[in-house]
Amino acid sequence: MLNPSKSDCITILSAASELADDSMLPLEHGRLGLSRNGMLAAAAFLIERACFRRHQEGDGHYAVGGLSLQGRLRLDQLSNG
Fold first, then answer.
1. What CATH number does the domain containing 73 carry?
2. What stretch of H or E contains 48?
């Protein structure tokens, strides 16, 4: 079972919340200021919970779209609770 850090999840969700409708956010640990393992754990955790409207994976790289309703709720929950 994945156990990502709360701050890693908030970082990814916050970045995805800024996207336009058809944009994709490439998940690059250096760009997001996260460790590679932390980013991968948080991304897998959030993707499994349908926090993004869409996602792509290829050659070990992830990209996510904007937040789904579940993603917005999770961001609010993690940020405020």
1. 1.10.10.10
2. helix 36-48
Q: Which residues pair with 25 in a beta bridge?
A: 64
Residue 1 maps to a domain: no
What is the reported pTM?
0.92
Cα separation, 74 vs 9, in Å, equals 9
Per residue in 53-69, pLDDT (tens digit) is 999 998 878 999 999 99
Please work out, in degrees rounded to the nearest 5, the angle formed at the alpha carbon of residue 34 by the alpha carbons of 29 and 40. 60
Tens-digit pLDDT profile for residues 41-53: 999 999 999 999 9
Angle CA 38–65–60, to nearest 5 = 45
Q: Which domain holds residue 54?
A: 6-80
Residue 61 within any structural domain of the chain: yes
Cα atoms found within 13 Å of the Cα of residue 52, Cβ hemisphere only? 30
